[in-house]
Amino acid sequence: MTLLGRDILSFNFESIQLNRLNWCDYLNQPNPVAAALMAKMKIVPSDRPKVKAECLRLLATLKLDPARTRLISGFIDTYLRLNAQETQIFQTEIARLESQQQEGVMQIVTSWMEEGIEQGRTQGERSLILRLLNRQVGELPDGLRSQIETLSIPQLESLGDALLDFASVSDLEAWFSTHLPESV
Questions:
Q1: Shortest CA distance to 74 belongs to which of 36, 118, 119?
Q2: Taking the domains of the chain in order of start, what are their residue ranges?
């Protein structure tokens, strides 16, 4: 198509509304996209735990590399977040799977749990260090708070050991220049 001597691109495509597709139609599709998108399809509320179990079962059978599995399972978990009652039903659905599929799904679920525990540990340690520093040396400048937010667990542990000897913000700055010279 040309308009005033200029070519104009025209795109024609069909739109797909996932919430109008039936998730059951994709149960046996050996496709990671199907495993992910089933979480966004038309789901009767009472089927949510079953759909999540089936999405993860399908994902586990695909034998993808860990990074892709985490990406797709994260999508599923985001769009099919279950409440406590649904989680119990989900666990019952997992228990009904054959043992090999059950093991694959549990590896995915266990990796979520481990990742969540590690994130919680890191956030908790960082929060404790910040509270202790505020108490020990007073309110921290935003720049130092930001630097602390980027520290790894071993660096946070090292800072936690050292902060008891701090008397002022300059002691914290000196710790950063000694332990992380590139950050100063």
A1: 36
A2: 17-97, 121-184
The 8 Å CB, 24+ separation contacts for 74-81 are: 74/112, 75/36, 75/39, 76/35, 76/36, 76/39, 76/52, 77/112, 79/39, 79/40, 80/39, 80/48, 80/51, 80/52, 80/55
Cα distance between residue 10 and residue 128, in whole Å: 56
Looking up tokens 């010279």, which residue turns up? 181
Is this structure's pTM higher than 0.85? no
pLDDT per residue as tens digits for the range 110-125 = 777 777 778 888 899 9
Which residue in this structure is represented by tokens 């660096």? Answer: 155
What is the number of alpha carbons within 13 Å of residue 31 lying toward its C-beta? 9
Residues 129 and 157: their CA atoms lie apart, in Å, by 9
H or E segment at 2?
A: strand 2-3
